[in-house]
User: Which sequence fits this backbone?
């Protein structure tokens, strides 16, 4: 580990000594190499002027300093209660308005418990529950569901509900954020995903998702959750009508909240997909832009321990590539239980990988596969040599 980090540092120092390198980029790079926090202005300048190779080298240095060559994943499955939604976000290919029946679904408690029971006896550690915002699926409805899940399988970590879902639930129930979060915690909710953040810039947000939870509401819900001991993830929807300045502003608001609470587990850049939505005229970002976004996320968010590439959205090959651009987590097994990105034209139309496939994907790029729980506690460290690999395959 130390030798690898030294080699990485030496390669960056070599780049910094390049006479053709912009002097300001060089100054900012040295600051990062010395583990100094960069400002929003410096972050924007680096984003606009740093080459892909330079940003990747910096991001990889930080990634290896924090997590070595580890790549984390977990055994999880998703429940998507409904895709019927009271909101109509322009970028969304998943949701259907309440009155629309085409390609819509609405699961009962029993149907969702059937999904949970499907994994009885399997070593899954997490159920991830997110979906559309449906007025009939209120706070009490979901508290009862969580209690049923915990009664059936107490060891299963329940990661549930975006801040957008929660804001609507609390408003309908006429409870405060604190009251609503405490009620969910008492029911057994363990953590929150990071969806619904999109882009915090209010002008951009008004154009792509004007009628749902505001930036301030999203941040307030996560801050409250953290203060109650409920950790969460954070996301950013990139590659649509926003620019680099909007992305830096978004990450800065997250960085400031993390300074206050230290409650975020990981940051997940989510690529805008233009399939079958109101923004289909907007071109999707290139893989080069994807790599820059992930690299800058790792560079700027110095107080986040992990950066995740959600492989069902970005694709498994691209997720592999991003492991050299600051990423140290690729989510989990999923098991074909999510439709959110498949419906928008993501590479993975039937997103499922078993543990062996995930391990092999990570090993193929000379990284160290580590199965984790939701809170990044290691469960199994796959430290392999060529002779152990075949033996391991028989026991996954």
Assistant:
């Amino acid at each position: 580990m130390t030798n690898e980090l030294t080699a990485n540092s030496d390669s960056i120092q070599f780049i910094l000594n390049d006479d053709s390198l912009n002097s300001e980029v060089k100054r900012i790079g040295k600051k990062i190499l010395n583990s100094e926090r960069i400002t929003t202005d410096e972050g924007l300048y680096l984003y606009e002027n740093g080459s892909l190779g330079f940003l990747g080298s910096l991001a990889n240095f930080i990634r290896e300093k924090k997590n070595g060559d580890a790549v984390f994943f977990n055994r999880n499955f998703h429940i998507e209660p409904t895709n019927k939604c009271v909101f109509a976000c322009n970028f969304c290919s998943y949701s259907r308005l309440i009155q629309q029946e085409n390609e819509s679904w609405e699961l009962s408690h029993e149907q969702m418990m059937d999904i949970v029971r499907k994994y009885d006896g399997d070593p899954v550690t997490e159920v991830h529950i997110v979906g559309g915002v449906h007025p009939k699926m209120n706070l009490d409805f979901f508290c009862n569901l969580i209690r049923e899940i915990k009664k059936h399988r107490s060891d299963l970590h329940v990661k549930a509900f975006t801040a957008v879902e929660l804001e609507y639930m609390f408003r309908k129930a006429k409870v405060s954020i604190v009251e609503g979060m405490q009620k969910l915690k008492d029911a057994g909710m363990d953590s929150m995903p990071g969806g619904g953040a999109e882009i915090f810039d209010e002008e951009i947000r008004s154009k792509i998702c004007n009628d749902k939870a505001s930036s301030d509401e999203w941040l307030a819900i996560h801050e409250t959750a953290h203060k109650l001991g409920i950790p969460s993830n954070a996301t950013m929807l990139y590659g649509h009508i926003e620019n680099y300045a909007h992305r830096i502003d978004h990450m800065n608001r997250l960085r400031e909240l993390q300074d206050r609470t230290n409650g975020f587990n990981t940051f997940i850049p989510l690529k805008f997909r233009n399939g079958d939505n109101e923004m289909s005229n907007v071109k999707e970002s290139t893989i080069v832009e994807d790599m820059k976004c992930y690299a800058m996320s790792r560079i700027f968010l110095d107080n986040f321990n992990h950066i995740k590439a959600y492989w069902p959205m970005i694709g498994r090959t691209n997720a592999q590539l991003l492991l050299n651009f600051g990423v140290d987590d690729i989510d989990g097994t999923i098991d074909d239980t999510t439709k959110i990105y498949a419906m928008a034209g993501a590479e993975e139309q039937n997103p499922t990988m078993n543990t062996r496939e995930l391990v092999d994907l990570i090993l193929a790029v000379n990284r160290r596969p580590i199965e984790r729980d939701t809170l990044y506690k290691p469960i199994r460290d796959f430290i392999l040599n060529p002779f152990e690999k075949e033996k391991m395959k028989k026991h996954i």
